[in-house]
Amino acid sequence: MADTDQNPNASAQFAFTAEQHELRTTVRSFCAEHSDEATVRQLMEARPAFDQKAWIRLGSELGVLGLGVPEELDGSGGGLVDAAIVVEELGAALFCGPVFGTLALSIPALLAAPDTPVRTQVLGPLVAGTRTAAFAVPERAGRFAADAVTVQATGSADAWTLSGTVERVVDADAADDLLVAAAGPDGVALFVVDAAETGVQQTVLSTMDLTRPQATVRFVDAPARLLAGPEQANQICQRALQVAAVLLAAEQVGGAQHLLDLSVAYAKDRLQFGRPIGSFQAVKHRIADMLVDQEHARSAAYYGAWALQDGSDDPALAASIAQATCSAAFTRIATDTVQVHGGIGFTWEHQTHLYFKRAFTDAALLGSPEDHRDRIAAFVLDDITGDYEVPVATG
C-alpha cells in the first residue's frame, strides 16, 4: 500500500476498476479470435512472424497500443497498469507480434524523449498500429549499457548516418523503425532509423522461442534521425528498460496462468487406476505450489506497474522485484506443467512446449532472476539508488 502522506499522487489502495475488467475481457476475446494455437503455430514459421492486420486492429480499433500515451499525443490515456493488463492477456495467448519491441520498449522510450517533431512522427503510427518498432539498444541485466554501444554516429544537426552492428535485437524483423543507441561526437545518443533504408541489413537468428524472433542488425551509413542527445539518452533508455521489465513480468504472469489452467484441467480429466490424477497427493501438491508461485508473481508484476505509474517506489527496485519474481515463477510453472502432463507434455503436438520455450527465453531477456535478486539485495542492504549496476562476471 502506498503512503499517501509522503506521496500525495499515489493511490491508497490498489484494485482493478470496472473499466479495467472490461479491458481484460475485450483483449481476451481478441486473442481468442486472432491467437488460437493453430494461428500461433502458423505465424511463428512466417516472416515476419505476426499478422499485420491483427496488429493494426490492436492499435486503431482497440486502442490498446496507446494505453499510457496521453490523448494529446494520439494515445488512449490510461496508465501502465492498463498496459500490463493487455500484455498479460497477450502473453496468456502466446500472441505473435512485436509486443516487446514496440509496446514494451519503443513506445515508453518515445514517451520519455523530448517533445520534438521526430518523436511525434514516430510515435503516432506506432500507437495506431500502422508501423512497428524495435529497440536496438544494449542492456546488461535490464540496465542500459552505454559502454557496450557498438554503433557509431556521424554527422551533425539533421544529417546523421549510423554504422555498426547490434546483436540479438528482439522483433527487429517485424520492425518498420529501429530505435538505436549510437556513439556520436559528444557521447551516446538515441536515433531513429527506418528499417527499410538500404543501409540496414538484418540476419534473422535461429532461436529457441520461434514466437519471439530476434535478429542481428547491421548499419552501413544508414540515414538516421536524432531522437535524443547524450544528455538525455541514458535516462530515456533506463526508463524504457524499467517499463519493459514490468510489462515483461505481466506477460510472464499471463503465460504462467495459462499453463496453470492447463494443468488443473488435465489433472481433473486424466485418469489413472480409475481415479483423476489430481486426486493423488504428489500431483495436487505440485499444482498447489504452482498456484502459490502464480499469485506471488501476479502481485509483484502489478505492484511494479503501479509503482512506475504512480511513482510510489523506486522504479529500478520495483522493476527488479517484478522480474526476479515473475521470471522464476514462469519457468517453474512451465517445468511443472510438463511434469503434470507426463509423456504428452514433451511432444511437439502439445502446446506446453511453446510456453516452456517462451518462459526460458523471457527469463533471459532483461536479466536473470539471480541478477535481479542481487540488485534487490544491494538496494535493501546498501540503501543505494537506481544507478546501481550489477557486477559482470569475468573468467
TrEMBL record:
Q: Does the keyword Flavoprotein apply?
A: yes
Q: Which InterPro entries match?
A: Acyl-CoA_Oxase/DH_mid-dom_sf (IPR046373), AcylCo_DH-like_C (IPR036250), AcylCo_DH/oxidase_C (IPR009075), AcylCoA_DH/ox_N (IPR013786), AcylCoA_DH/ox_N_sf (IPR037069), AcylCoA_DH/oxidase_NM_dom_sf (IPR009100)
Domain named Acyl-CoA dehydrogenase/oxidase N-terminal: residues: 17-129
Q: Which CDD domains match?
A: ACAD (cd00567)
Gene3D superfamilies per the UniProt record, alphabetical = Acyl-CoA dehydrogenase/oxidase, N-terminal domain, Butyryl-CoA Dehydrogenase, subunit A, domain 2, Butyryl-CoA Dehydrogenase, subunit A, domain 3
Q: Where is the Acyl-CoA dehydrogenase/oxidase C-terminal domain?
A: 237-380
Q: Which cofactor does it need?
A: FAD
Pfam families on file:
Acyl-CoA_dh_1, Acyl-CoA_dh_N
Q: Does the keyword RNA-binding apply?
A: no
Which GO molecular function annotation, any one, does this entry have? flavin adenine dinucleotide binding
Keywords for this protein:
FAD, Flavoprotein, Oxidoreductase
PANTHER family named in the record: ACYL-COA DEHYDROGENASE (PTHR43884), ACYL-COA DEHYDROGENASE FADE28 (PTHR43884:SF20)
| Entry similarity comment | Belongs to the acyl-CoA dehydrogenase family.
- Please state what the protein is called: Acyl-CoA dehydrogenase
Q: Which organism is it from?
A: Mycobacterium talmoniae
